[in-house]
Every structure is written in C-alpha cells, then in structure tokens.
C-alpha cells in the first residue's frame, strides 16, 4: 500500500475542515403592531420587535382606535360621532336626517349629501328662558318674522341687534359652542317644525315633550313656539319661559 506523505495528509485535513459552510446571516427583526380588536389594522403606539410575527400583532400601523374593530382606515364614515375611517375628522359626511352632523349635533334637514341643518345635542339655558323684549317689534334687517327654512339665522341676527334683554333665547343660541363650532342660531318656525319631525321619526336628541322657541316673531308681544309632545305650534308671549335648542347650517 502506498503511503501518503505526512504533509499531504495535513493538507487534505485542512481542506476538508475548511469546506464547512458558514452560518447564514441572521434575519433582522421586524416591528410589529398590536391588533387588539382583530381588524388587521395595528396600533402605532404598541409595538414588538421580532423576526416572526407574534400572536396578536400585525405589520400595519394605521389603526386610530384599536379597541373598536369598526374604526380603521378601511371603514366608511357613518356619522356616529366616531372617526370611522381614521382620517382625523368625525362626522364628515355624506349626511342623512338623523345622522350626527359636522359639529356633533343631529342632522334634521339634509339639502344635499354634504349640506343641511343640525341641531345641538342638548338644550341651552337649562329649563328655559324668555324670547325677550315683549312690547317691541324687531325691525333690524328684515325683522324677525321669517318663517321659512333659511330665515332662522337672519331672524336671530335681527333679534340680537334690537333686543337688549339679557339671557334671552336668541342670545343663548348665539353663544353656544360645540367642538369648535360657534355659528349657532335660533331656528325659524319651519326649521323648528323640521326639527320636531326628525325628533318624532328618529327619537334622538333628548327633546322630550318640551315647548321650544323659534326665532319667528308674531307681533310686538308674541313669537312662535312648538310643543314637542304633539307637534302643535302656537304664538306664545315673549315674556314666558320656554326651552331653547340652537341649530346651525353646514
């Protein structure tokens, strides 16, 4: 048998040892985001770093409410006082009667998918206040006798101009603010009736069976109000205390 030289054997051994493959480069860790509500959209504020996807975590980080599976960028806005589609705004339309409006009130007139009137979600002035200035006929502008939809704002401006009584219905409506919106006014007679119709159909807004003032004047001593118990409209004495619910156009 032929013997290999010792140096050749050493070389073979070194080559054999050197032929082993090196360990592969480690896979870098990925940032995963908690998906508590299991809607496949993750919470950007709750993370975990791992190579493999941990249970309850996803790669997406665009959920704005990880406790509500109906709120995420894949949803459609439904005007329910939530940012359904995570676009940074709530109640951004389109709108139908009975929806929450842009300010968070109740839509009671929808003239188009993105325009109409909304009512404040609560009364102004507690249990009620006066219309103000009995014995005085409002004369500024076109006065305050407008009855139709679209006249409430102008009625309110005229009342504010001519009636200096404190704490009156028009002033409470004008002073109201909600979610940064401060353009509220006292509804006209027909606007108030549309509000009653919405309330009677959808039963939202907590109106109960109160009487509510409109901004529509009826002579020097009277103004129109409406009973939300039965819908009856009547000319009431301006000095009586009646409930107030502000509205706004959008």
Notes on the structure:
The model is unreliable at about 5-20 (pLDDT under 50). The chain is about 20% helix and about 25% strand. The relative contact order is 0.13. A hairpin with a 5-residue loop joins strand 8 (about 220-225) and strand 9 (about 235). It has about 250 residues and is of the alpha+beta class. A 3-stranded antiparallel beta sheet has the order 2-1-3, with no helix packed on it.
Entry keywords:
3-stranded antiparallel β-sheet, single chain, 4 helices, elongated, 23% strand, 11 strands, 250 residues, alpha+beta
From the alpha carbons, calculate the radius of gyration and give it in angstroms. 34 Å
The number of strands is 11
Approximately how much helix is present in the residues?
Answer: 10-25%
* Sheet with most strands: strand arrangement: 2-1-3
Shape: elongated
**What percent of residues are in strands?**
15-25%
The assigned structural class equals alpha+beta
Cα distance spanning the termini:
104 Å
């Amino acid at each position: 048998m032929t013997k290999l030289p010792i140096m050749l054997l050493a070389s073979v051994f070194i080559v054999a040892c050197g032929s082993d493959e090196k360990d592969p480069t480690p896979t870098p860790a990925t940032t995963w985001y908690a998906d508590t509500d299991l809607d496949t959209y993750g919470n950007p504020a709750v993370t975990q770093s791992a190579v493999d996807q941990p249970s309850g975590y996803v790669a997406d980080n665009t959920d704005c409410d990880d406790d509500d599976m109906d709120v995420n960028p894949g949803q459609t806005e439904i005007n329910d006082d939530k940012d359904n589609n995570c676009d940074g705004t709530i109640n951004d339309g389109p709108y139908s009667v009975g929806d929450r409006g842009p300010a968070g009130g109740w839509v009671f007139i929808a003239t188009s998918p993105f325009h109409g009137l909304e009512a404040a979600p609560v009364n102004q002035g507690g249990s009620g206040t006066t219309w103000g200035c009995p014995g005085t006929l409002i004369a500024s502008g076109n006065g305050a006798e407008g009855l139709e939809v679209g006249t409430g704002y102008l009625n309110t401006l005229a009342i504010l101009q001519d009636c200096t009584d404190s704490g009156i219905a028009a002033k409470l409506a004008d002073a109201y603010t909600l979610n940064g919106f401060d353009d509220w006014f006292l509804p006209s007679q027909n606007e108030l009736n549309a509000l009653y119709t919405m309330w009677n159909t959808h039963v939202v807004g907590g109106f109960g069976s109160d009487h509510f003032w409109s901004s529509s004047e009826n002579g020097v001593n009277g103004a129109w109000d409406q009973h939300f118990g039965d819908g009856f409209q009547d000319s009431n004495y301006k000095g009586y205390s009646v409930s107030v619910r502000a509205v706004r156009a959008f």
